[in-house]
C-alpha cells in the first residue's frame, strides 16, 4: 500500500517508540507478552480519559449495573485491551489450525460452506476480545476476502501494521470515497467476500437502536448484501483465558429482503445491531467500550 508521507518529527518519534515496544514484546513468548500487556492495561488504562467514556457507555447499556460490578468489568476490559496490545506483534507467528489448543473453533463448517458455496459473502463482526483472529481465520481458511480497515494516523505505524497483517494472510483494504466503494463492488461482483466491522460509530450511517439508544451505524454491509444477494455472515471471538481464544462462526443474519429497499436496509442494520448486542451481553468485559459509540445526547437521556 502506498501512503502519502508527511515527514514530521512527531511521526518519526512515535514510530520509533512503537517499534521499540514491538521489539520488546516480540522478544518474549506470546503468553508473557499478553500478561505484560494485561498488567500495563490494568495499571494505566483507568488513568486515561477514555476510562470515563467506557464507564458512561457501560452505564448506558446496563443501567442496573452496580458500581462494584462496573469496576470489575472495567478492570477486566483494560486487562483484555492490554493483552491485545501485547499480542499484536506476535500474530504473524500464530497458526490457527495447528491444533496446539491456543485457538478453538465453533461452526467452522459454516466458514467452509461460505467459502465453497459460490455466493458472495459479507462478513460482519465487532471489536471483541482479540478481533484480529477473525480475519486471520478467514484468510487462512482460503476465503478470498477484502478486509476493510481504518488506517492508523501515523503512516509509518500503518505501514508496519499492514505488513504484519500480511504475514498471517490478511490483505487489507481501506476504502476511501467512490473509488474505494467501487473496489468493494468489484470484489462482490466476482463472487468474493468482504469483511467489515460494524460496531463503531459511522456518521454517514443510520441512527438505529443499540441497547435501546440510537447510535449511528454503518449501513454498507446490509446494502452490499442486498445488492449482490450476499450472505450476511457474522463471526465473533472470545478470550477463554490468557492468550487462548475461541473463534465462532454464527448462523447467517436474516432479515426481510422483500421489503422496500430502505426498509430492508433498516431491518438488516437492526438485525446486525442485535447480533452485536448479544455478543456484548455474553462477554461485556471483552468489548471495545472506550469508543464513543453513542452521542452525548444518549448519555444525557440515560442519565449517565
Low-confidence stretches: none
Order of SSEs: HHHHEHEHEHEHEEEHEEHH
Note the gap between the termini: 42 Å
Structure classification: alpha/beta
Number of helices: 11
**How confident overall, as mean pLDDT?**
91
Gross morphology is globular
The proportion of strand residues reads 15-25%
Major sheet strand order? 1-9-8-2-5-3-4
Number of E strands: 9
Radius of gyration of CA atoms, rounded to a whole number: 19 Å
Helix content: 40-55%
Largest sheet: 7 strands, mixed
Description:
This protein is of the alpha/beta class. The protein is 48% helix and 15% strand. It has helices spanning 9-26, 30-44, 50-61, 67-87, 108-116, 133-140, 155-167, 177-189, 220-227, 261-282, 296-302; strands at residues 103-106, 121-125, 145-148, 172-173, 193-197, 206-210, 213-217, 231-241, 244-249. The strands form two sheets. It has a seven-stranded mixed beta sheet, with helices on both faces. Strand 8 (231-241) and strand 9 form a beta hairpin. Helix 9 (220-227) packs across helix 10 (261-282). The radius of gyration is 19 Å and the shape is globular. The termini are far apart. The mean pLDDT is 91.
